[in-house]
Write a structure and sequence with these properties.
single chain; mainly alpha; two-stranded antiparallel ribbon; 26 helices; 2 strands; 59% helix; globular; disordered C terminus; DUF1524 domain-containing protein
Length: 493
């Protein structure tokens, strides 16, 4: 910051160092607008004119509470700041313990590490409350009665002066070792926590490529209730293969139960939260945890719920799979599988571009358009009624990720022009999914059904599930009118 040599500085740039750099630039800019005499006056005020208030606190007054009040500065202290102040304060109460002096240094060191990793990726700083809450779930015995009131538990129930000096119950007694162990766990956990949320950010000792892929995949879908379990697996140093199996089971659970079956959002939360501490303490094996997750999938997974969800989307907005909240994740996974299968070196479909935002660069394209005015579509789909046309346009097999720019260029063009419009725009030079579609000579109702069944086959293999027989899958695609009608009959309807 001031271009002075430091033995402790490791040149680690974080969100916090960036804030300091921004502050330095701001003040340099402000000072550049003043004369030398004005700057000298500012310097004199800073070094000689600042006033400090000295408060003498009676021994009967709680120093910690007073400090919180004085340190408020018009802005509430964060949970991390409150917890640090509390633990340092408690360290002063162990007068007769030789480790109390070391404890304070340990707290300071741990908090330095936490702040470093919380802001280590300036583009995506981590939420300190999310970390503390999930660590609390892993470290202490979880019960739903406590809910998410983790900071109240830590400050009002666990780490209190009363529990150090005169606890109500013997089990409430807090020792130097109790605080030391908790602080050590926080310091160790934050590194794993950062890696879990930034698997492709370089860190020594995290070298398993499959682990990075599985973490990235679960983060794209959503960690949901599995953060404490994953943290416990890393902290307890489980074998890498077993952690990967846990990640696979967690992603399968979240996709099948929530993206497909749309179970209640808190399904399994209490079970998995409770298992995190048991795994950390060695009371559960990671293999038993994985087995339990898979048992939950086997019990709660019902393909008919997916059908009911899609049917509702057709009834409410007539947009079926196009409005499925798991569509982008599913199509991204399919494209990634095609890319890997084809051994393509260049990945053309990135998740940051595909994920749904107001400014998404990648849209979901209807191959057979919703407004089929082009003669190509009239010749092949013109005999269908409005309901059948809607079902086809919004069926899974008719949807593909496409750049907004390309989508705008192709719009309602015929299939041959969508494959290649002659101006270098088309499916032929796009993502792996686009390339696969470009290999088709025609795009007919049967093509949409066939691709939909192919996507379902991928879904079954990818998540190790069964959707049912072909008749049910066709019904799920809302294309059973095709299987019931021959191509010749469709043409003369």
């Amino acid at each position: 910051m001031f271009k002075e040599h430091s033995h402790s500085n490791q040149h680690q740039e974080t969100l916090y160092t960036q804030n300091l750099i921004a502050a330095k630039k701001y003040f340099l800019n402000q000072l550049s607008q003043h004369t030398s005499d004005e700057i000298a006056l500012i310097y004199k005020k800073l070094t000689q004119k600042l006033k400090f208030n000295l408060y003498e606190i009676d021994e009967e007054i709680d120093v910690f509470v007073t400090f919180e009040t004085m340190n408020n500065r018009g802005k509430p202290l964060t949970s991390l700041e409150l917890l640090k102040n509390r633990l340092i304060y408690l360290s002063t109460l162990f007068h007769n313990h030789e480790g109390h002096a070391v404890l304070r240094n340990k707290v300071n060191s741990a908090w330095k590490t936490m702040y470093e990793y919380l802001g280590k990726n300036p583009d995506a700083p981590l939420d300190e409350n999310l970390f503390l809450r999930n660590h609390w779930t892993m470290y202490f015995k979880y019960t739903r009665n406590k809910g998410d009131d983790y900071i109240k538990y830590l400050l009002n129930d666990k780490f209190t002066a009363r529990n150090v000096t005169h606890p109500k119950k013997q089990n409430d007694q807090i020792t130097v070792d109790d605080i030391s162990d908790y602080v050590t766990s926080l310091q160790e956990s934050i590194r794993h926590w950062f890696y879990i949320h930034n698997p492709y950010f370089y860190l020594p000792n995290y070298t398993d490529d499959n682990n990075k892929l599985l973490l990235d995949r679960l983060q794209r879908l959503s960690f949901r209730a599995f953060r404490p379990l994953l943290l416990a697996a890393f902290v307890s140093k489980q074998p890498q293969k077993d952690i990967n199996d846990l990640l696979t089971a967690a992603e399968r659970y979240n996709f099948t139960l929530f993206s497909l079956c749309h179970r209640r959002s808190n399904t399994g939360d209490s079970e998995f939260f409770g298992m995190a501490r048991e795994l950390l303490k060695g009371n559960l094996t990671i293999n038993s945890v994985i087995s339990t997750i898979n048992e939950w999938v086997n019990y709660y997974y019902e393909p008919i719920r997916f059908h009911s969800y899609i049917a509702e989307k057709y009834e409410l907005g007539q947009q079926g799979f196009f409005k499925w909240d798991g569509l982008r994740y599913f199509l991204f996974e399919y494209d990634a599988w095609l890319t890997k299968r084809g051994k393509q070196e260049t990945v053309k479909l990135g998740w940051d571009d595909l994920k749904a935002t107001s400014k998404d660069k990648i849209t979901i394209e209807h191959i057979f358009p919703q407004t089929p005015s082009n003669q190509y579509w009239q010749d092949r789909f013109g005999s269908l009624n409005k309901e059948q046309t809607t079902c086809l346009a919004n069926s899974l097999g008719n949807l593909v990720p496409l750049s907004r720019e390309k989508n705008s260029s192709l719009q309602n063009n015929g299939f041959n022009d969508k494959k290649n419009n002659g101006s270098g725009v088309g499916y032929y030079n796009g993502s792996a999914s686009e390339n696969e579609i470009a290999q088709q000579d025609e795009w007919l109702p049967e093509s949409i059904l066939s691709r939909g069944l192919t996507l379902f086959e991928f879904m079954e293999k990818r998540w190790n599930i069964s959707l049912g027989d072909e008749q049910f899958k066709t019904k799920l695609l809302h294309l059973d009118f095709i299987s019931e009608t021959s191509p010749e009959e469709l043409a003369i309807q």
